[in-house]
Amino acid sequence: MNEQAWKIVEQEIQRTRGSHLRELFAADPKRAKKFTASAAGWTLDYSKNRIDARLMKALVALAEDSGLRAGIEAMFTGEHINATEDRAVLHTVLRNFSGKPVFDKGRDVMPDVLEVRRRMADFANRVRTGEWRGFTGKRIKYVVNIGIGGSDLGPAMAYQALLPYSKRSLKCFFVSNIDATHLAEVLREVKADQTLFIVASKTFTTLETLTNAVSARAWLIGKLGSDAAVAKHFVAVSTNAAEVAKFGIDTANMFGFWDWVGGRYSLPSAIGLSLMLAIGPANFERMLKGYYEMDCHFRTAPFERNLPVLLGLLGILYHNGYGCESIAVLPYDQYLARLPAYLQQLDMESNGKSVDKDGNPVACTTGPIVWGEPGTNGQHAFYQLIHQGTRMIPCDFIGFCKSHNPIGDHHAKLFANFVAQTEALAFGKTADECRAEGVPEALVPHKTFAGNRPSNTLLADELTPKTFGALIALYEHKVFTQGFLWNVFSFDQWGVQLGKVLAGKVLKELTADATPALAHDSSTNALIERFRKAYSK
Ligand code: F6P
């Protein structure tokens, strides 16, 4: 981070540290208005944070003095900012509706992007209308996406989020885990002659995905009695045509994307094919337009009104200024149940880095731990710790004014809880308030809430493809903002490699016919020996 600018932020934190949100709100009736910003159908109320105007100014100056504006332009214009892999970072072109070209290595990438989307839409329409049929002539009723990480979490989360917009006669399943249970349980739910498998893998070399795909293919051939069935029941999404062909999927049934789309940023690419099948090309495009609106906002809005930048800066305030290790993401919408899991990969795989862009140890901590559950479930599980525990956990509350399921007064009750939690966190309950309620003295310490616990409130009218797309882009750019300020490479993920390599080695030892000479540590050796004994029985 820019040292000079960060020093000023720290001074402002010192100055404001003693203030309580109770006092800050009492002192300024316009506080909520002052600290609210809107874009792309979303309103961010960040007034319930430990901030005042001077601290916010210092945070915005941190972004400006660190060169964030130029950093954003470098991403949008295709500079190879993923330097350790020498790649551009151009997921924003997947939803570029400007009509303007975007170049990578001197070549406009837009025609390819539009062509793949056109092919996806054509395919999705054919499946949805029943023109594309299975090997025995039956309509496709089930879609099974086989992928992991970015090739799973995005479409799985989005399918659930946009279920109200989906064709209910087409059911999607997502298989990711190499644990055969995942595949086996899904195969129990579907019928081979009505199932379309999408093998989704950027590299098409991922162990989990290929293992699941091989088993799914064997199951399909076993059920339908012919290798020829594969052509009607398997398509692929990948950047690696050679491996797709090697697997036995005709590349005519492959939907491509490019190395400049990171796995965790790939939902708007062909990786979203299962989602497009479910919600249709028109809704998919509405989602992309939501992304685009947030992209434009991020690229052009002044930082003091820029939602992703504000979220990023507030995160840095707590992470680096107050030492908070985690943030909770709390969607008050059951359709967004998988959003926290999706954001875990987006944020933690991007910014879980401990060396800076020059290869030196980072000077400050990076990458918060992201977790959460939908409200109101979380309230009856872990909110106790957020309200009265010893740690400060900044929260993002995400909610909607309207429900897709307006049954009785459910939604008003949900919304009441959504609002009340942020109020309780910010203002708490004093010992005097407890006493005034007649709480016995011995219980006063237990029933007192310190308050002053920060939260952001993100509110939209309704969960639609457009507001959904904008929300995902908002978090993508928040992660970008933080990674940029921490000066880390947010678009590689070398940290997942070592475990993969070691697993390959252990696998050989587990399954070797002759007892292998084990040269691991004593713990690893013992675990391998125990498995070998059980495996050979
Ligand atoms: O876990 C590492 C990772 O490379 C993720 O970044 C990626 O989303 C996932 O594996 C799946 O990779 P692929 O799409 O190449 O199968």
Rg is 25 Å
Strands across the major sheet, in which order? 1-2-13-12-10-11
The separation of the N and C termini measures: 57 Å
Tally of separate helices: 21
Low-confidence stretches: none
Ligand identities: 6-O-phosphono-beta-D-fructofuranose
The proportion of residues in beta strands is 5-15%
Average of pLDDT: 97
Strand-pairing-aware structural class = alpha/beta
What is the tally of beta strands?
Answer: 13
Helix content: 40-55%
Biggest beta sheet summary: 6 strands, mixed
What features would you describe in this structure?
- The protein is an alpha/beta fold and 537 residues long.
- It has 21 helices and 13 strands.
- The strands form three sheets. A six-stranded mixed β-sheet has the order 1-2-13-12-10-11, with helices on both faces. A five-stranded parallel β-sheet has the order 6-5-7-8-9, with helices on both faces.
- A hairpin with a 2-residue loop joins strand 3 (103-104) and strand 4.
- Helix 1 (3-16) packs antiparallel against helix 4 and helix 20 (497-511) packs across helix 21.
- 6-O-phosphono-beta-D-fructofuranose (F6P) binds at residues 148-151, 201-203, 206, 209, 263-264, 349, 493, 496.
Keywords for this structure?
single chain; 537 residues; alpha/beta; 21 helices; globular; binds 6-O-phosphono-beta-D-fructofuranose
